[in-house]
Each structure stands twice: as structure tokens, then as C-alpha cells.
User: Which sequence fits this backbone?
């Protein structure tokens, strides 16, 4: 077996812009793992597009030297869908936060799963809205009003009396929607995150990686310490192709598994179907507008 | 033997009303087809219920020797298949008109001057089906609908003294695949309708259609079909859309045809996703379009501004419909002009264009794609329900006149680290690198940015980059704006008595009204705008200076074009606007012109 020559190193992916994140932000670790995973996969920056929505983490495309697309809040997935569906030759990586992906953009998730285009969706989940300075997100796990004897308006800006909504479990959602690759990473486990991202980038189909990326400025509840305590490695004997087992693991009652949780190998994909269609149509006489008009004579 | 008192005519309007799903539209389309085969030019109009099945439909067909500008004023013949249809949409019949009604269903109250011709269409059709059942057995015959529309067609053709031979041939071709028995039943149904009219006609006055020699073949197409074919001719590579009445037909047409041209189409999960997909595919190098109607356009607004800011070429075809919110989705309106021109947060450069006729839908789609590619911004192409569903006979477009434009790509020496995607140029237009281009990497962004695309918020940068983007519209105004309007000057010398400024689907009916006015000695000029934002200001000012008075007719409640003109041009104008779900008729516009001329 021959090893492919190394053309691209981590340095190849670093742009001249320096990240504007707060000191201690989990996103630094995610960006670093992404550079390494891109180098592991030898992605050509000129043939790669990093797409994002709006939020702290959505500034990431500017920090990568590849083509980038910094879109509008919540629409990274359909933007990426337009890129990948029309240009299957490009590598498409989608990044963003939990508010972007699970709240305003949540409606696009099941449809990305249905289309199953080859792309990687990396969500930096800090359980809060960081850019707008500390409102609850769909994944915030703050105490409910009934469980909270005090009020703390400084920290919980739009829920000063406590939460009124339960939080969303993104992994359970992703498995239910049958995304063909579902994983969880943690920015404080950088090597493991690099490994997960490398697998995701090599996956054929749609991959979602929910990554705990704590916000030290706005979230004093789901901190790095909180996650260090609550996370554990996906057990070695876990079979990610077993949907029931994956669902049980994703909804573990006391902790958060880190690793690849679910895989649906051989799931139909819009990309493959489109390829078959174009192959089939290529065998037919070429279409012309002049020819179309003959039908209306 | 029947005695016929005919009036030779080369202009007849037939209106058909009935229950949706009962063959009214198909009868209308068959009649239009037969009239086309007689060498006449056709214009149709249809209005239908929003329900899947049920409700009253109306189909109007006008046949004329020579150009046909509108679907006609008062109908010469009304075919009424239901009582509800007769009451709801049976109005606007000529004083000496004919009502052909199904006497199995109802009998209208007679009116003076009118000939009411009752025919038991339902039982006549059933008799033909029963006759076939007696001859043949089998599931296919049992499930066959009774040929009501063919009985009606025979009657209608005889009423206008048209030959039945083309219809017989058409029936043979249409039903040939289903077997000889079914062809026979339909031909018998045709003659049964025809014979009944011959028995009844007596001394009644009926329009007599004069067949025409056709020198060149014509196509019969709708506005929606022409937008779709124009998009293909314009080089469309990607379409993302979400179904919405009355725009869906464009997406359905392209779903079938676009892959044959090498392109891709996705039915998105909503209109926001549809426009987001367009942004992605355009960034990736494709020419892109979506089709929607007002409510969908509202959902797209945020991304329209994004595309303006990030300089992404795309086309949104808005097939306008009646009313706000769900409103009257199957009726027509020109009520989205304000949304198209002003409906963005803050400001970002975009172009608003309007198709003026079925023929123009083809060219407007090409122009819209070319404008998007040239100026790298969103283009909103306005159509409306009446135009979208209107069918016209037309010559096949002159394909040698189709010109397609590609966006500017960077020169080799401009590529490399820190490629300046948003270079501040004299025209405002900067080269756009397509992913895959070595040394062209940049981040497209809605955030304010410098020439490279890096974020920045200084007043100096904000001024420079907003100027750069808006300069593209100045370039358009300077280089191309005067190319797009249709100008119909008045005959004769000096100032026109009345000058009409309008846009969109009203072009034909306005031409008809203007020609009628000219014929009555009122000199009438007509400027029909296709480019609505930015406006061709110099051209409008010159037109206004050439007329004594200006009339601005449009199909919306508040007079949106009048408002747009008042805001941009030093102009005194007379606005005429209404939003009732139906198109203008030539007579009401002629009355407006005449009233205005008398005030001069």
C-alpha cells in the first residue's frame, strides 16, 4: 500500500484572519481539530467550501483559507444543499451554533437527512446564544421555574425566572431523522474530535457532529468542567449501525457519550439519484429549446 | 332545413362556465384548438376555484384574424353548463349574445335581445355512452366519462358556422390509442351536438367565423410555459422552488425539462430554503431561478438582501395573485410591485423586471437571467395569474435573437492570496471566482466587508462598499435602462392627447384600448415598462414631455406604480387602479382614455 503524498498541512487551511472569539472559547479547539481533520483528508482548499449561518461559531469560514460562505441566520443547510447539489465535485463543510442549527434553522434538519448529500455539518453547541449575549437556546439545560427558588436575571436574560421549556436532544433528533452519520464531539477532547471529524469528512452521505463547545462568557452552567464530568467515550462494543442501540446510547440517562453514535450505511442519496438520472438522460438525444417549442405547434 | 342569418366576423369571444373537474376547461381548450386550426389567433383567460375539485370555473377564448391583444370584452357566446356558473360568471355577455346552456341542469331567465339555446347536453352525452355500451363491453367503457364536452364542441362549432372536419381529425388522433369504439362514440357525440344546433338555429343571428390562411405555423403557449422555456434558453442551471398557486406550473415544467438540459431542480422544504439553495448554487457557478407568488416572496426577503450584499446573481419569478395573505390565490393582481421594489430591510441593490405578454415571458426570463449575471444581484421578475395561465397563438421565437450573458470571471493575474472578489471598480461590477478556481478563494458574506471580503465596520468602508454595490444600478441605468421599455408612439404630429404608462400583463389590453382611442381621433401614446427598478428615468421624462396628460392604469388597490413614478419623476398623473381579481377589459380602459382626453 502506498501512502498519498502530503500536499496540504494544517498551515494550508489557516487564513490571515485571526478568530475573534473570547479567550477560553471552546470554538478554538474545534477550529484546530477541523484544520487537522482537513489535513488528514488532504482536502484541496480551492475545491472546498465552508458554509455557515450567523452566530459566534458561524464566523469560522473566514478563518479557513478555502472558499467560504457566511450566510444568514439558520440557512446554512439549504445554502450548502444548493452548492453540493449543483456542484457534487466540491467538498462542502457546514458549521454553526446550536441556535443557528437547532432553533431558527431546525426545520431544515430532517430535509438534509432525507437528501443525504455528501456533506459534514459541525455544530458547535454551547447551550446558549453567545453573540446576542446569553439567552437560552434549544439545548440550554437551566433549571425550570418550578425547580428554581431564586431568580438570577443577570445570567438568564430571557428566562429570568427559570426555564419554561425542556431542552432538545439533538442526537435523538438526528437519529430519528435518520441522518446517515451522527456523532458527538467535545472541544476539550481535541484528538478525539479530530478523529471523529476525519471520519465524518470521509463519510458518504450527510454527517452531523454535535460538539460541546462551552461558552465561558455567557454560560456558567454547562461549562468545560460540567462536560468533563458528564462525558464518556462511546463503548468499544457499540455497533453504530444498530439504530436501537444508537438511540439508547444517545439518550443515556446520566451522561453524554463522545464518539460515533449512529451510521446508516447505504441510505439513498439525492446525489446518487441525480447521477443516475443524468447518466440516463445523457443517452437520449440532446434537448434544445427549439425542440421543446415543437410540442406546442 | 335550417335558415341561418349569419354575420361574417373575424373576432369572436366565447365564454364557458361550469363546475370544476367537469370538463369545462377541456371544452374551452378544444374550442381554442379548433379555432387555431381555422387560422385564427387565440387569446384565452381562465379563472378557477382554489379547491381541488368543485367550484365554478370560467374559461374565455377569443379568436381573431390577426393580432389578438386581449381575451376580449363582452362575450358573443356563453356556454353555461351549471346554474351557479351562469349566475357567478355569466355576466358581460354582448347584448345580442347567445347563451348555450345545458337544459338538463337549469333554464336561465330570458333576457331581451339575447338568444337562449337550451340543449340537454348531459342526456345527449349519456345517450352516446349508452350506445357504445350496447356495442361493447368491458371495464374501460363502463369507467368512461360521458362525452359532454364533445357534444358541446359540436354545438359550439356549428353555432359559429365552423367546419367539423378538423374536430373529427383531432378526435381520431386524441382517442385513437383508446380504440376505435371510443373514437366512434366521440365523433357521434360531436355530430349530435352539431345537428341539434342546426335544428334550432332558425333565423337567429349568429357569428360566422371566417377561416384564415396561415402562412407560418404558430405555437399555443401560456405565460408560465414561456417563462420556463425562456429560463432554459437563458442557460438556467439550477432551480429550487416550493409549490404555490399560480406559479407551480413553472416548477413542474422545469422539473421535467431542466435535467434534460443538464441542470438540477430541488423541491425545497419552504421558500426560504428555496432561495437559500439558489444562493448556494449561484455562488457555485450556476445560473439560478425560483418561481413563487406573493406570500413566498415575503418569506424570501431576508435572503434577497443577503444576495444583494454578497453580490450573488439570482432570479425570482413572482407570479402575482389576488389579495393579501391567502387572499384569492387563483385570481390575478399586480399588487406585489411595492414588495418587489421596496420590500427589503435597509437597502441593497436589486432589479425589478416585469413580463408584459405571453410572448414577452420568454424574453423577460432571458433578460432577467442576463441582468442577474451582469450586475451580480437578485432580479425579481414579475408575472401574474392572468398572464401565467393566458394562452396565445404566437410565432415560434426567433432563436437567433437569444443572447446569453455570463458573469465576469477573474483574470489569471488577479487570482492568488487575498483575491479581491469585491474590487471597487468604475462600474461597481467585480469579477466573481467560482469554487474550484485556483487562487480565487474568498468568503461570500452578508456582513459589511472590504474588497477581499473580510468583515469591517468603519464609516469609510461602509461608504465605499455601499457605493460600490449601488454603482452597479447606476451602470445599468446608464448603459441599458432604455433598452427594456416597449414604446408605442401616437400617430400624428405634436403632443399626444393621452400618454399611458403601465407595466406587466396589461400591455395587450392597453394596446387594444389605445388603438380604439386612436381610431376615434384621440391620439394616444403608450410606454410599457419592463424594467421597474431602477426606473429608466430619462426615458420616462421624455415620454411625459411628449404627452398632454398621463394615465397610469394598474391592477392593485393603492396605485403602486403611480406611487413609484411620483416618488422618482417630476410628474402629474391620473391614476386608475383596482384590485378585484380580474384583468382589465379594453372598454373600461378606453373609457378612461376618453374621459381624460375630454379634460384636456
Assistant:
Amino acid at each position: 500500500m502506498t501512502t498519498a503524498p502530503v500536499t496540504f498541512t494544517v498551515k494550508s487551511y489557516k487564513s490571515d484572519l485571526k478568530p475573534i472569539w473570547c479567550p477560553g472559547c471552546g470554538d478554538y479547539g474545534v477550529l484546530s481539530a477541523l484544520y487537522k481533520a482537513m489535513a488528514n483528508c488532504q482536502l484541496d482548499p480551492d475545491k472546498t467550501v465552508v458554509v455557515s449561518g450567523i452566530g459566534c461559531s458561524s464566523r469560522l469560514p473566514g478563518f479557513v483559507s478555502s472558499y467560504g460562505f457566511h450566510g444568514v441566520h439558520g440557512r446554512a443547510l439549504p445554502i450548502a444543499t444548493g452548492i453540493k447539489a449543483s456542484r457534487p465535485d466540491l467538498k462542502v463543510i457546514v458549521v454553526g451554533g446550536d441556535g443557528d442549527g437547532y432553533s431558527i434553522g431546525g426545520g431544515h434538519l430532517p430535509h438534509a437527512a432525507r437528501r443525504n448529500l455528501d456533506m459534514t455539518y459541525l455544530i458547535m453547541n454551547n447551550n446558549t446564544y453567545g453573540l446576542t449575549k446569553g439567552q437560552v437556546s434549544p439545548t440550554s439545560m437551566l433549571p425550570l421555574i418550578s425547580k428554581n427558588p431564586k431568580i438570577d436575571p443577570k445570567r438568564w436574560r430571557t428566562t429570568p425566572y427559570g426555564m419554561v421549556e425542556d431542552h432538545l436532544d439533538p442526537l435523538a433528533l438526528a437519529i430519528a431523522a435518520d441522518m446517515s452519520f451522527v456523532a458527538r464531539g467535545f472541544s476539550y477532547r481535541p484528538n478525539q474530535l479530530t478523529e471523529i471529524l476525519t471520519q465524518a469528512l470521509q463519510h458518504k452521505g450527510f454527517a452531523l457532529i454535535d460538539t460541546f463547545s462551552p461558552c465561558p462568557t455567557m454560560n456558567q452552567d454547562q461549562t468545560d468542567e460540567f462536560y468533563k464530568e458528564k462525558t464518556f467515550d462511546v463503548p468499544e462494543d457499540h455497533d453504530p449501525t444498530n439504530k436501537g442501540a444508537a438511540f439508547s446510547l444517545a439518550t443515556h440517562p446520566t451522561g453524554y457519550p463522545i464518539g460515533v453514535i449512529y451510521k446508516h450505511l447505504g441510505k439513498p442519496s439525492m446525489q446518487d439519484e441525480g447521477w443516475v438520472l443524468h447518466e440516463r438522460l445523457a443517452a437520449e438525444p440532446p434537448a434544445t429549446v427549439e425542440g421543446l417549442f415543437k410540442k406546442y405547434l | 332545413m335550417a335558415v341561418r342569418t349569419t354575420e361574417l366576423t373575424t373576432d369572436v369571444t366565447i365564454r364557458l362556465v361550469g363546475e370544476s373537474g367537469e370538463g369545462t376547461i377541456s371544452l374551452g381548450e378544444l374550442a381554442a384548438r379548433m379555432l387555431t386550426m381555422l387560422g385564427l389567433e387565440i387569446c384565452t383567460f381562465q379563472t378557477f376555484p382554489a379547491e381541488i375539485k368543485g367550484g365554478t370555473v370560467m374559461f374565455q377564448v377569443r379568436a381573431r384574424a390577426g393580432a389578438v391583444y386581449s381575451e376580449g370584452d363582452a362575450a358573443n357566446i356563453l356556454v353555461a353548463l351549471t346554474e351557479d356558473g351562469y349566475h357567478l360568471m355569466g355576466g358581460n355577455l354582448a347584448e345580442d349574445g347567445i347563451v348555450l346552456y345545458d337544459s338538463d341542469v337549469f333554464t336561465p331567465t330570458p333576457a331581451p335581445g339575447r338568444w337562449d339555446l337550451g340543449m340537454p347536453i348531459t342526456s345527449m352525452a349519456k345517450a352516446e355512452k349508452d350506445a357504445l355500451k350496447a356495442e361493447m363491453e368491458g371495464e374501460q367503457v363502463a369507467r368512461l366519462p360521458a362525452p359532454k364536452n364533445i357534444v358541446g364542441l359540436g354545438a359550439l362549432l356549428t353555432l359559429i358556422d365552423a367546419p367539423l372536419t378538423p374536430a373529427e381529425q383531432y378526435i381520431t388522433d386524441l382517442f385513437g390509442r383508446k380504440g376505435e369504439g371510443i373514437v366512434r362514440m366521440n365523433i357521434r357525440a360531436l355530430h349530435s351536438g352539431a345537428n341539434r344546433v342546426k335544428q334550432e338555429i332558425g333565423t337567429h343571428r349568429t357569428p360566422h367565423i371566417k377561416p384564415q390562411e396561415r402562412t407560418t405555423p404558430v405555437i399555443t403557449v401560456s405565460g408560465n410555459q414561456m417563462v420556463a422555456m425562456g429560463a432554459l434558453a437563458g442557460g438556467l442551471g439550477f432551480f429550487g422552488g416550493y409549490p404555490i398557486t399560480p406559479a407551480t406550473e413553472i416548477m413542474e415544467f422545469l422539473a421535467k425539462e431542466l435535467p434534460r438540459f443538464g441542470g438540477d431542480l430541488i423541491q425545497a422544504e419552504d421558500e426560504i430554503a428555496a432561495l437559500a439553495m439558489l444562493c448556494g448554487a449561484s455562488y457555485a457557478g450556476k445560473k439560478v431561478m425560483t418561481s413563487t407568488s406573493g406570500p413566498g416572496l415575503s418569506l424570501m426577503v431576508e435572503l434577497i438582501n443577503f444576495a444583494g450584499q454578497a453580490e450573488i446573481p439570482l432570479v425570482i419569478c413572482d407570479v402575482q395573485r389576488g389579495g393579501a395573505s391567502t387572499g384569492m390565490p387563483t385570481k390575478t393582481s399586480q399588487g406585489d410591485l411595492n414588495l418587489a421594489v421596496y420590500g427589503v430591510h435597509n437597502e441593497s441593490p436589486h432589479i425589478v423586471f416585469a413580463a408584459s405578454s405571453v410572448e414577452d415571458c420568454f424574453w423577460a426570463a432571458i433578460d432577467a437571467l442576463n441582468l442577474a449575471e451582469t450586475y451580480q444581484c437578485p432580479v425579481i421578475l414579475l408575472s401574474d395569474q392572468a398572464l401565467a395561465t393566458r394562452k396565445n397563438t404566437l410565432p415560434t421565437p426567433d432563436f437567433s435573437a437569444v443572447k446569453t450573458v455570463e458573469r465576469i470571471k477573474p483574470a489569471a493575474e488577479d487570482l492568488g492570496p487575498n483575491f479581491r472578489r469585491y474590487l471597487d471598480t468604475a462600474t461597481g461590477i467585480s469579477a466573481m471566482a467560482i469554487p474550484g478556481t485556483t487562487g480565487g478563494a474568498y468568503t461570500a458574506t452578508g456582513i459589511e466587508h472590504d474588497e477581499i471580503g473580510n468583515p469591517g465596520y468603519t464609516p469609510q468602508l461602509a461608504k465605499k462598499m455601499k457605493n460600490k454595490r449601488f454603482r452597479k444600478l447606476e451602470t445599468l441605468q446608464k448603459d441599458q435602462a432604455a433598452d427594456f421599455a416597449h414604446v408605442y408612439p401616437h400617430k400624428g404630429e405634436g403632443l399626444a392627447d393621452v400618454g399611458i404608462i403601465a407595466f406587466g400583463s396589461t400591455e395587450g389590453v392597453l394596446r387594444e384600448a389605445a388603438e380604439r382611442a386612436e381610431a376615434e381621433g384621440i391620439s394616444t401614446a403608450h410606454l410599457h415598462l419592463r424594467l421597474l427598478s431602477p426606473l429608466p428615468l430619462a426615458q420616462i421624462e421624455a415620454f411625459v414631455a411628449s404627452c398632454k396628460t398621463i394615465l397610469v392604469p394598474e391592477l392593485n388597490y393603492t396605485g403602486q406604480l403611480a406611487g413609484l413614478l411620483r416618488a422618482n419623476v417630476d410628474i402629474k398623473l391620473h391614476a386608475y387602479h383596482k384590485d378585484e381579481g380580474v384583468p382589465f377589459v379594453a372598454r373600461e380602459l378606453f373609457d378612461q382614455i376618453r374621459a381624460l382626453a375630454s379634460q384636456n
